[in-house]
Design a protein that fits this description.
The chain is mostly helical. The chain has 20 helices and no strands.
Length: 506
């Protein structure tokens, strides 16, 4: 059953213009359009800010020095190209299972199948690691067993995601607000130290730290290139705004605004924050495993700095797990609606949340927490490493689909998007090349090489699953129809009476 046929078959709300908006506050996929502009904006902002900045940047600074600022700036430009490519696709057809839907339509059934399940796995593994990390952060204040905190966090976030998408959006809004406030506060404090000279760091703080101690490239260009995988990993989840398309109150208006904020978000939260921190604290003072924010607080003389950062990374971890709960249920439902997953995942609660898919994913997260607690060894490390390469797979699919969509739209085969990516398809090809360089760097770095070893194994699992499911239900793996085909399927046939569908049935 194709996605167009499912839209008609579900009977969960009428499709509006373009097949995206539904009456009664529901989308054609059965979801409630309850995410407003305020929530979409903060989900987009929060998706680009995580523990990769608050904790992981310390390792990157020790490898590249001040040139890490340039790495974040260039990578941020690539992320903007990816998000504009996604935006063009979303305005063409805003659907909740966006990545796999577009891969299914513009590349083929196998690509859609792999993309959906890979993105689901990415968030399950991310949820496992983040809820475990959150439990670890709790021990900073209280001597609580790690398993107990992990259990409470998982159950609470699971409950939040089952209440309604609006509650999820509100919780994500405040999680993101904490992260944004922390970064803006740090930038203002560092700016005050540089201009007014107060605090313990006032006498030594200077922008000259950016080119002293070995210059702007103290480890050479090679050192900067080796940090690209760390930098790109920090941006994983920025594409989450695409998953919200099916539940955005006004996707044609809110999604472009959210995507267009990407440049200034990266400029302020990454480039701006690093410039301030590295001006107050010389890059030689940073060590792997130590948050650059903690180091800056210590140099300034704020004793509460470590506690503040611990609270921020706690909210960042919970935010990521919350996003994982949200996205995994939607991806499983999209796969099931297209016959590429168990049919029971299509079930929605009265509030429009995918009950079974979210429950299944939450259960796996709990099992993963238990495994991590019992055997925190190499096997779990391998799975976690794979999450990084699987996250970038979604970016690759977005870019390839945008290139193919633009070509068909330019030929008049498909309607043009109201939010065209500037410079495409050249910017999309550039972003693909950049991701290719990052993957090569991952292969060179022995700390991240394991990610590439896991990819062929997952590809083999996907191939076996695809062949098995296609043999049982060939129609489910037909190429997804384009806009013209969906319109023809929705249009009533000649002579059809009132209440008749495309085939003349009730």
């Amino acid at each position: 059953m194709t996605s167009a046929q499912v839209d008609h078959h579900d009977g969960e709300g009428s499709l509006g213009p373009g097949g995206s908006t539904a009456v009664g506050g529901r989308s054609g996929e059965g979801y409630q359009r309850a995410l407003g502009a305020r929530q979409i904006q903060m989900i987009a902002i929060g998706g680009a800010i995580g523990t990769g900045l608050f904790l992981g940047a310390g390792k990157a600074i020790s490898k590249a020095g001040p040139s890490l600022i340039l790495a974040y700036a260039v990578a941020g430009l690539v992320i903007f190209f990816i998000m504009r490519a996604l935006g063009e696709l979303l305005m063409y057809r805003p659907v909740s299972g966006s990545f796999s839907e577009y891969a299914r339509e513009f590349i083929g059934p196998f690509s859609g199948f792999v993309t959906g399940w890979t993105y689901w796995l990415f968030w399950v593994v991310t949820g496992i690691t983040e809820v475990t990390a959150a439990a670890t952060y709790m021990t900073y204040w209280w001597d609580i067993p790690q398993w107990a905190s992990a259990l409470v966090f998982t159950v609470v976030l699971y409950g939040v995601n089952l209440i309604s998408v609006k509650v999820f959006g509100e919780l994500e809004f405040w999680f993101s607000m904490v992260k944004v406030t922390a970064i803006v506060g740090m930038i203002l404090i560092c700016l005050g130290v540089l201009t007014l000279g107060f605090s313990d760091a006032g006498g030594s703080a200077s922008v000259t730290h950016l080119w002293h101690d070995g210059g702007f490239f103290p480890k050479g260009i090679g050192g900067t290139l080796m940090t690209l995988q760390i930098v790109m990993f920090a941006f994983l989840a920025v594409e989450l705004v695409g998953v919200t398309a099916g539940e955005s109150r006004d996707p044609k208006k809110t999604l472009p605004k959210a995507i267009n904020t990407v440049p200034w978000r990266i400029a302020v939260f990454y480039v701006g924050a690093l410039i301030m921190i590295l001006s107050v604290v010389p890059w030689t003072s940073f060590r792997p495993g130590v948050s650059p924010f903690v180091a800056a607080f210590e140099r300034i003389g704020l004793a509460a700095g470590a506690g503040i950062v611990n609270f921020v990374v706690l909210t960042a971890a919970l935010s990521s797990c919350n996003s994982g709960m949200y996205s995994t249920g939607r991806m499983l439902r999209d796969l099931a609606r297209n016959g590429q997953g168990p049919a029971l995942f299509t079930r929605l609660t009265r509030s429009g949340t995918p009950l079974v898919g979210t429950t299944f994913s939450a259960a796996l997260m709990l099992v993963g927490v238990w495994i991590n607690y019992q055997w925190p060894g190499d096997a779990f490390t391998y799975v976690v490493s794979f999450a990084t390469i699987s996250g970038m797979w979604a970016w690759i699919m977005i870019l390839v689909c945008q290139i193919r969509y633009r070509a068909r739209a330019d030929r008049g085969e498909l309607p043009g998007s109201t939010f065209r990516a500037p410079g495409a398809p050249y910017t999309s090809w550039f972003a693909l090349a950049f991701i290719g360089v990052v993957i090569v760097m991952m292969g060179i770095d022995r700390d991240t090489r394991i990610s590439l070893y896991c990819a062929p194994l997952w590809a083999a699992i996907m191939a076996v699953g695809f062949l098995g499911l296609r043999a049982r239900n060939p129609a489910a793996f037909a190429r997804a129809p384009g806009a013209a085909e969906r319109a023809s399927l929705r249009a009533p046939s000649r002579g059809a009476g009132p209440g008749k569908g495309p085939s003349g049935g009730a």
